[in-house]
Design a protein that fits this description.
The structure is a single chain. This protein is α+β, with helices and mostly antiparallel strands and 296 residues long. The protein has two domains: 69 residues, no CATH class; 173 residues. Helices cover 17% and strands 28% of the residues. A hairpin with a 5-residue loop joins strand 5 and strand 6.
Length: 296
Protein backbone atom coordinates (compact mmCIF):
# COMPACT_ATOMS: atom_id res chain seq x y z
CA UNK A 1 0.00 0.00 0.00
CA UNK A 2 2.76 2.46 0.87
CA UNK A 3 4.27 2.00 -2.60
CA UNK A 4 1.17 3.14 -4.47
CA UNK A 5 -0.69 5.30 -1.97
CA UNK A 6 0.67 8.42 -0.32
CA UNK A 7 -1.20 9.70 2.76
CA UNK A 8 -1.73 13.45 2.53
CA UNK A 9 -3.23 15.81 5.10
CA UNK A 10 -4.78 18.98 3.71
CA UNK A 11 -5.61 21.94 5.95
CA UNK A 12 -9.24 22.47 4.98
CA UNK A 13 -9.40 25.73 6.89
CA UNK A 14 -6.96 27.30 4.45
CA UNK A 15 -8.41 25.97 1.21
CA UNK A 16 -12.16 26.41 1.68
CA UNK A 17 -12.31 30.17 2.00
CA UNK A 18 -13.63 30.59 -1.53
CA UNK A 19 -17.35 30.07 -2.06
CA UNK A 20 -16.75 28.60 -5.50
CA UNK A 21 -16.33 24.83 -5.42
CA UNK A 22 -14.00 24.88 -8.41
CA UNK A 23 -11.64 27.27 -6.64
CA UNK A 24 -11.71 25.12 -3.49
CA UNK A 25 -10.87 21.96 -5.44
CA UNK A 26 -8.09 23.71 -7.33
CA UNK A 27 -6.53 24.82 -4.07
CA UNK A 28 -6.74 21.33 -2.61
CA UNK A 29 -5.28 19.76 -5.74
CA UNK A 30 -2.40 22.23 -5.67
CA UNK A 31 -1.53 21.21 -2.10
CA UNK A 32 -1.74 17.51 -2.93
CA UNK A 33 0.35 18.02 -6.08
CA UNK A 34 3.00 19.85 -4.05
CA UNK A 35 3.21 17.24 -1.29
CA UNK A 36 3.37 14.30 -3.71
CA UNK A 37 6.02 15.88 -5.97
CA UNK A 38 3.68 15.78 -8.92
CA UNK A 39 2.87 12.08 -8.56
CA UNK A 40 -0.79 12.68 -7.68
CA UNK A 41 -3.27 11.01 -10.03
CA UNK A 42 -7.04 10.68 -10.22
CA UNK A 43 -8.58 8.37 -7.66
CA UNK A 44 -9.39 4.93 -9.05
CA UNK A 45 -11.10 2.10 -7.23
CA UNK A 46 -10.67 -1.50 -8.39
CA UNK A 47 -11.67 -4.89 -7.03
CA UNK A 48 -8.67 -6.87 -5.80
CA UNK A 49 -7.85 -9.93 -3.76
CA UNK A 50 -6.43 -9.65 -0.25
CA UNK A 51 -2.95 -10.00 -1.80
CA UNK A 52 -3.53 -7.07 -4.14
CA UNK A 53 -4.19 -9.04 -7.33
CA UNK A 54 -6.48 -7.00 -9.53
CA UNK A 55 -9.67 -8.86 -10.48
CA UNK A 56 -10.96 -6.36 -13.02
CA UNK A 57 -9.69 -3.31 -14.85
CA UNK A 58 -13.05 -1.57 -14.61
CA UNK A 59 -13.60 1.29 -12.19
CA UNK A 60 -16.91 0.67 -10.47
CA UNK A 61 -17.17 4.17 -9.02
CA UNK A 62 -17.39 5.61 -12.54
CA UNK A 63 -20.16 3.32 -13.78
CA UNK A 64 -23.47 4.88 -14.70
CA UNK A 65 -25.84 2.00 -13.94
CA UNK A 66 -26.41 -0.64 -11.29
CA UNK A 67 -26.57 -3.31 -14.00
CA UNK A 68 -23.00 -2.52 -15.07
CA UNK A 69 -21.79 -2.68 -11.47
CA UNK A 70 -23.51 -6.03 -10.91
CA UNK A 71 -21.98 -7.49 -14.08
CA UNK A 72 -18.53 -6.34 -12.97
CA UNK A 73 -18.97 -7.90 -9.53
CA UNK A 74 -19.95 -11.26 -11.06
CA UNK A 75 -16.96 -11.08 -13.40
CA UNK A 76 -14.59 -10.42 -10.51
CA UNK A 77 -16.17 -13.21 -8.47
CA UNK A 78 -15.67 -15.67 -11.33
CA UNK A 79 -11.97 -14.77 -11.52
CA UNK A 80 -11.55 -15.04 -7.76
CA UNK A 81 -13.01 -18.52 -7.50
CA UNK A 82 -15.31 -20.17 -5.00
CA UNK A 83 -16.22 -18.17 -1.92
CA UNK A 84 -17.32 -19.90 1.26
CA UNK A 85 -19.56 -18.08 3.72
CA UNK A 86 -17.84 -16.82 6.84
CA UNK A 87 -19.08 -18.04 10.19
CA UNK A 88 -18.09 -15.33 12.63
CA UNK A 89 -19.65 -15.04 16.04
CA UNK A 90 -20.59 -11.41 16.74
CA UNK A 91 -18.69 -9.82 19.60
CA UNK A 92 -19.38 -6.47 21.20
CA UNK A 93 -16.61 -3.99 20.49
CA UNK A 94 -16.68 -2.53 24.00
CA UNK A 95 -17.91 -5.20 26.45
CA UNK A 96 -17.32 -2.79 29.34
CA UNK A 97 -19.60 -0.11 27.85
CA UNK A 98 -22.10 0.83 30.52
CA UNK A 99 -21.30 -2.05 32.84
CA UNK A 100 -18.69 -2.85 35.48
CA UNK A 101 -15.27 -1.39 36.07
CA UNK A 102 -12.09 -1.56 34.03
CA UNK A 103 -8.74 -2.98 35.21
CA UNK A 104 -7.29 0.49 35.85
CA UNK A 105 -10.29 1.57 37.95
CA UNK A 106 -11.92 3.63 35.20
CA UNK A 107 -15.46 3.13 33.88
CA UNK A 108 -17.05 3.52 30.46
CA UNK A 109 -20.48 5.13 30.73
CA UNK A 110 -22.88 4.28 27.91
CA UNK A 111 -24.28 7.31 26.08
CA UNK A 112 -27.19 7.49 23.64
CA UNK A 113 -27.95 10.89 22.16
CA UNK A 114 -30.19 12.06 19.33
CA UNK A 115 -32.04 15.03 17.92
CA UNK A 116 -35.57 15.12 19.27
CA UNK A 117 -37.21 17.70 17.02
CA UNK A 118 -39.50 17.00 14.08
CA UNK A 119 -36.65 17.83 11.69
CA UNK A 120 -35.11 14.43 12.33
CA UNK A 121 -37.36 12.41 10.07
CA UNK A 122 -35.37 9.22 10.61
CA UNK A 123 -34.62 8.35 14.23
CA UNK A 124 -30.84 7.92 14.22
CA UNK A 125 -29.44 7.88 17.73
CA UNK A 126 -25.70 8.14 18.25
CA UNK A 127 -24.16 5.49 20.51
CA UNK A 128 -21.08 6.75 22.31
CA UNK A 129 -19.24 6.52 25.62
CA UNK A 130 -17.93 8.74 28.38
CA UNK A 131 -14.81 7.34 30.01
CA UNK A 132 -14.09 8.47 33.56
CA UNK A 133 -10.76 7.66 35.19
CA UNK A 134 -10.69 6.03 38.60
CA UNK A 135 -10.25 9.34 40.49
CA UNK A 136 -12.91 11.04 38.33
CA UNK A 137 -15.36 8.21 39.00
CA UNK A 138 -14.77 8.48 42.74
CA UNK A 139 -15.27 12.26 42.58
CA UNK A 140 -18.83 11.64 41.41
CA UNK A 141 -19.56 9.88 44.72
CA UNK A 142 -20.44 12.02 47.78
CA UNK A 143 -17.90 12.19 50.58
CA UNK A 144 -20.69 11.74 53.14
CA UNK A 145 -23.79 9.60 52.79
CA UNK A 146 -26.01 11.49 55.20
CA UNK A 147 -29.48 12.29 53.89
CA UNK A 148 -29.71 15.89 52.71
CA UNK A 149 -25.97 16.27 52.12
CA UNK A 150 -25.25 18.36 49.04
CA UNK A 151 -22.00 18.60 47.11
CA UNK A 152 -20.54 19.93 43.87
CA UNK A 153 -18.89 17.67 41.33
CA UNK A 154 -15.37 18.99 40.53
CA UNK A 155 -15.24 21.05 37.35
CA UNK A 156 -12.82 18.74 35.46
CA UNK A 157 -15.16 15.80 36.11
CA UNK A 158 -18.32 17.68 35.15
CA UNK A 159 -16.71 18.71 31.86
CA UNK A 160 -16.36 15.06 30.86
CA UNK A 161 -20.12 15.09 30.22
CA UNK A 162 -19.73 17.57 27.35
CA UNK A 163 -20.65 14.69 25.01
CA UNK A 164 -24.34 15.08 25.88
CA UNK A 165 -24.32 18.49 24.16
CA UNK A 166 -24.95 17.93 20.46
CA UNK A 167 -26.22 14.86 18.64
CA UNK A 168 -23.73 14.42 15.82
CA UNK A 169 -21.39 11.43 15.41
CA UNK A 170 -18.82 13.64 13.65
CA UNK A 171 -15.83 14.34 15.95
CA UNK A 172 -15.43 17.79 14.36
CA UNK A 173 -18.88 18.87 15.57
CA UNK A 174 -18.74 17.52 19.12
CA UNK A 175 -18.27 19.94 21.98
CA UNK A 176 -15.16 18.99 23.89
CA UNK A 177 -14.50 19.56 27.58
CA UNK A 178 -12.47 22.67 26.79
CA UNK A 179 -15.28 24.10 24.63
CA UNK A 180 -17.66 24.48 27.57
CA UNK A 181 -18.08 27.97 28.95
CA UNK A 182 -20.36 26.67 31.71
CA UNK A 183 -20.19 23.23 33.29
CA UNK A 184 -21.71 22.49 36.66
CA UNK A 185 -22.98 19.36 38.38
CA UNK A 186 -24.30 18.94 41.89
CA UNK A 187 -25.42 15.96 43.92
CA UNK A 188 -27.89 15.69 46.78
CA UNK A 189 -28.27 12.61 48.99
CA UNK A 190 -32.00 11.85 48.96
CA UNK A 191 -31.96 8.47 50.66
CA UNK A 192 -29.54 6.87 53.11
CA UNK A 193 -30.34 3.65 54.94
CA UNK A 194 -28.91 0.20 55.57
CA UNK A 195 -29.98 -0.97 52.11
CA UNK A 196 -28.64 1.72 49.77
CA UNK A 197 -27.86 5.40 49.28
CA UNK A 198 -29.50 7.41 46.52
CA UNK A 199 -28.03 10.60 45.10
CA UNK A 200 -29.96 13.02 42.87
CA UNK A 201 -27.72 14.64 40.26
CA UNK A 202 -28.36 17.89 38.41
CA UNK A 203 -26.27 19.82 35.94
CA UNK A 204 -26.18 22.53 33.32
CA UNK A 205 -23.77 22.89 30.39
CA UNK A 206 -23.21 25.48 27.68
CA UNK A 207 -20.45 26.05 25.18
CA UNK A 208 -19.35 26.85 21.67
CA UNK A 209 -16.88 25.39 19.23
CA UNK A 210 -15.54 26.80 15.96
CA UNK A 211 -15.99 24.39 13.08
CA UNK A 212 -12.99 23.51 10.96
CA UNK A 213 -14.79 24.69 7.81
CA UNK A 214 -16.01 27.93 9.35
CA UNK A 215 -18.99 28.86 11.49
CA UNK A 216 -19.82 28.19 15.11
CA UNK A 217 -21.33 25.25 16.97
CA UNK A 218 -23.21 26.60 20.02
CA UNK A 219 -25.00 24.22 22.36
CA UNK A 220 -26.47 23.85 25.80
CA UNK A 221 -27.99 21.07 27.88
CA UNK A 222 -29.46 20.43 31.32
CA UNK A 223 -29.42 17.05 33.02
CA UNK A 224 -30.86 15.25 35.98
CA UNK A 225 -30.04 11.78 37.14
CA UNK A 226 -29.73 9.28 39.93
CA UNK A 227 -26.69 7.55 41.39
CA UNK A 228 -27.30 4.53 43.64
CA UNK A 229 -24.64 3.38 46.11
CA UNK A 230 -24.23 0.16 48.05
CA UNK A 231 -24.05 0.28 51.88
CA UNK A 232 -20.25 0.38 51.66
CA UNK A 233 -20.35 3.35 49.24
CA UNK A 234 -19.66 1.45 46.00
CA UNK A 235 -21.60 2.76 42.97
CA UNK A 236 -24.27 0.30 41.84
CA UNK A 237 -26.24 2.18 39.18
CA UNK A 238 -26.13 5.48 37.35
CA UNK A 239 -28.85 6.88 35.10
CA UNK A 240 -28.83 10.39 33.65
CA UNK A 241 -31.22 12.01 31.17
CA UNK A 242 -30.71 15.38 29.53
CA UNK A 243 -32.28 17.74 27.05
CA UNK A 244 -30.79 20.69 25.26
CA UNK A 245 -30.31 22.54 22.00
CA UNK A 246 -27.52 22.46 19.44
CA UNK A 247 -26.87 24.36 16.22
CA UNK A 248 -24.45 23.61 13.40
CA UNK A 249 -23.40 26.16 10.75
CA UNK A 250 -25.81 24.54 8.27
CA UNK A 251 -28.83 24.65 10.61
CA UNK A 252 -31.15 27.63 10.32
CA UNK A 253 -31.98 27.48 14.02
CA UNK A 254 -30.96 25.44 17.07
CA UNK A 255 -32.32 21.89 17.20
CA UNK A 256 -33.52 20.18 20.35
CA UNK A 257 -31.55 17.20 21.63
CA UNK A 258 -31.92 14.51 24.26
CA UNK A 259 -29.46 12.07 25.79
CA UNK A 260 -29.31 9.12 28.19
CA UNK A 261 -26.20 8.14 30.19
CA UNK A 262 -26.35 4.68 31.73
CA UNK A 263 -24.10 2.44 33.84
CA UNK A 264 -24.49 -0.42 36.29
CA UNK A 265 -22.08 -2.47 38.34
CA UNK A 266 -23.30 -5.97 37.56
CA UNK A 267 -23.72 -7.78 34.24
CA UNK A 268 -26.67 -6.78 32.10
CA UNK A 269 -29.59 -9.13 31.75
CA UNK A 270 -30.62 -10.28 28.28
CA UNK A 271 -33.23 -8.04 26.68
CA UNK A 272 -36.71 -9.62 26.59
CA UNK A 273 -38.23 -10.38 23.21
CA UNK A 274 -41.09 -8.03 24.01
CA UNK A 275 -40.67 -5.00 26.21
CA UNK A 276 -43.34 -4.92 28.94
CA UNK A 277 -45.39 -1.79 29.44
CA UNK A 278 -43.98 0.59 32.00
CA UNK A 279 -45.74 3.41 33.75
CA UNK A 280 -44.91 6.88 32.50
CA UNK A 281 -42.32 8.96 34.39
CA UNK A 282 -43.67 11.65 36.76
CA UNK A 283 -45.12 14.63 34.89
CA UNK A 284 -42.72 17.53 34.61
CA UNK A 285 -39.62 15.43 35.19
CA UNK A 286 -36.68 15.41 32.80
CA UNK A 287 -37.45 11.78 31.93
CA UNK A 288 -41.05 12.65 31.08
CA UNK A 289 -39.87 15.34 28.68
CA UNK A 290 -37.48 12.86 27.07
CA UNK A 291 -40.15 10.20 26.53
CA UNK A 292 -42.62 12.69 25.09
CA UNK A 293 -40.23 13.57 22.28
CA UNK A 294 -41.16 12.50 18.73
CA UNK A 295 -40.03 9.02 17.89
CA UNK A 296 -40.02 7.74 21.48
Amino acid sequence: MSEYFIPVAVNKTEVVQSRRASTQHAAENAVVHLLTNGRAVDLAVFLTTADGQQLTDKQIFRMQSAREVEATLWEALARFGSVRPRHVRPVRQDPDRGVGGRPDGSVRLAVVIRYTDSGDYTARPVYDSIILSGPQWQALVPSTRQKGARYSVPDPVARQFSRIVGASPDPTTMLRAEDLSAAGMTGTVTRADARETTVALAGRFAGLRHHVNGGDLPGQAVLEGELVLAPDGRPLRLLIVSEGAFKTPWDRQPRSTGAVVDWQAGPRRAQPKSIPHRSAPPAGSQAAQWFRRPGR
